[in-house]
Amino acid sequence: MKVKIQKFNPAKDAKPYYKTFDVPWKKNMTVLEALMYVYENFDPIAFDYSCHGGRVCGRCGVMVNGKPVMACFTPIEKGTDITVEPQKGSPVERDLIVDRTEMQDRISNIERRIRSKPLEPKDLQKDFDPVVKQKLDDLEWCCRCLSCNAGCPVLNDMSDPEKYIGPAGMRAIGLRHFDPNDEGDRVLEAVQNGLYNCILCGQCDKNCPASEIKHVELFKELRAEAEKRGLKH
Questions:
Q1: Global pTM?
Q2: What is the DSSP letter of 121?
Q3: Range of the structural domain that residue 43 is part of
Q4: How many domains are contained in the chain?
Q5: Which of 31, 103, 158, 204 could form a disulfide with 167 if both were Cys (CB 3.0 to 4.6 A apart)?
Q6: Same domain membership, residue 180 and residue 117
Q7: CA nearest 144: which of 168, 119, 179, 114?
Q8: Residues 6+ apart with CB under 8 A from 27
Q9: Are strands 82-86 and 67-70 parallel, antiparallel or unpaired?
Q10: Could you report the per-residue pLDDT of 12-40, keeping only the tens digit for each?
Q11: 3-class SS of residue 30
């Protein structure tokens, strides 16, 4: 099969370019295995991976034939040629490696609990609605791979990224919205970060490696709360 890979070394290349390699296909072959074959036999391409477990670390996110995937568990069908490019939405450091620091730091800031005073063990709410607890457990599956953002048509077409934080950031807002130990106005935060710029297309759900996370369902719940308070705009 043909594996076409985007190459780019900012230290010497004026712009990205592509190289194509012949890789022998095998049953159950993953994109990561194809990349490793190229690295070991043809060209020391730069790519990232760690866990091999699928949806645990999020480091191997790339674009394959234009779609965001996790290279570690994405299979290649027999007779299929693939084009592998760096994940959209983050600066390219080299070849297939991107720098996700900016968005991941933004998510970390959102997920910090907002409290009037520090949370102490005696204040921790442990017994609460099991439905809400399940929602929290599901949202915690995010590995911050940013595949949801990479495949978001709104982010990809938006000239001003400040108008919409994207599904990854919105999930973080939703996590704290349901958290009974958080005192922030997360509904207002969601609206201010572009909740109504989302078109509810569901690409984030399709591209997310964690099937537990229901992005569109979450966004609809946040909108319902916003509309109760007259925050829709």
A1: 0.91
A2: G
A3: 2-98
A4: 2
A5: 204
A6: yes
A7: 168
A8: 78
A9: unpaired
A10: 999 999 999 999 999 999 999 999 999 99
A11: strand
